[in-house]
Amino acid sequence: MKKLIAIDLDGTLLSSNIDISEENVQAIQNAQKAGHIVMICSGRAPEDIKTVIGKTPLQCPVAGSNGAMVLADGKLLSQISINKETVKKVAAVLDEYKYPFKIYTSQGIFIASSWTERMLVFLEENKEITKNLTPKEYKLMTEQPKETESIKIFDQLEAVLKIENIAIQKFFVPTLAGKTELTARLKAFEGISITTSGPFNIEVMDTNGNKANGIQVMAEYFNIPIENTVAIGDNFNDVPMLEVAGLSVAMGNADPTVKDLADVVTLTNNEHGVAHAIEKYVLAAK
Predict the structure, then answer these.
(1) Closest alpha carbon to 7 in 285, 272, 286, 284
(2) InterPro entries of this UniProt entry (predicted)?
(3) 167 and 93, same structural domain?
(4) 20 to 30 Å CA-CA from 274: which of 34, 71, 116, 259?
(5) 3 with 37: CB under 8 angstroms?
(6) Quick one: how far is CA 156 from the chain centroid?
(7) Distance between CA atoms of 28 and 38, rounded to whole angstroms?
(8) 123-132 as b/e, with b when 16 or more CB fall inside 10 Å?
(9) Whole-angstrom Cα distance, residue 72 to residue 257?
C-alpha cells in the first residue's frame, strides 16, 4: 500500500547538530524504493529546505513555511498568503513592541534593517535565552543578516508589499517575555493563526496556511488517500498535520502535549527517530 510520509525538519529529521544522520537518509531511501512518497514539511522556507536536503543524496517534494507553499516535481502546487492589509496590521503591532521579525514570502525571506538593534534588546530582556548561548551562537543571532539570493533586507514594509506578485506566507517572531500579550493582540486580527516551532518564537500565518494543508495537497497530487499518510513531528506547528494524517508520530523529544495527541511516539531526533518510525510503522507494517 503506497503511503505519503510527511517529515518535519528541526527537532525531527535534523539532529541537535543540525544534520541528517545516515540512518535517517537510508530509511527514507528504503521507503522511496518501496514505492512510498516522502515529503519534507517544515516551517523553513522552501529554499532553506532544499539547501538542507541538498547536503544529502535525498530528493523529496516539500511543503515550506508551515505548509503555505507546496512544491513537487518542479511545480508550485499550492500557495497560501496573508492578506496584505492584515500584513500591515501585524507588522504595526510588532513595530509597536519593537520585536525583531522575519517575513517569509514567495520571493524569499525579508528581514528588517533594524534586526540587530531589536535582537540585542530582545536578548537583553530575555536572560533565560542568553544564559545558554555560546559566544558564537549569540553573534549568529544578533548580527545583521547579509543579502543573498533568498534573503532580502528592507527598510519600509510598503516597499516589500509593492513587489510584483509577492505573497506573504508567514511572520517569524522571536519572543518570550510578553509572548502571551503579543499573541492575544495578534489573534484579534481576522484570518490569521498563530503557532510556534519552539519555546522562544511565534509564527503568524493565514488560517489555512498550516502543515495540514501541506500534507493534504501533496496527498491529492500523488493520489494517496489521507488515511494512507504518516506525519512525523515534534512541536506545535506540526500539530495540524499530525491531526489529519492517517498515522501521527511524535518524536521522543517532542513537547509532552504533542506526544499526547500523537498515535505513537518514536525515538528522539538524536537517536534516528525518523528512521525508527519509518522502519517500524511503514516498512515493517503488513
Answers:
(1) 272
(2) Cof (IPR000150), HAD-like_sf (IPR036412), HAD-SF_hydro_IIB (IPR006379), HAD_sf (IPR023214)
(3) yes
(4) 71
(5) yes
(6) 25
(7) 7
(8) beebeebeee
(9) 31
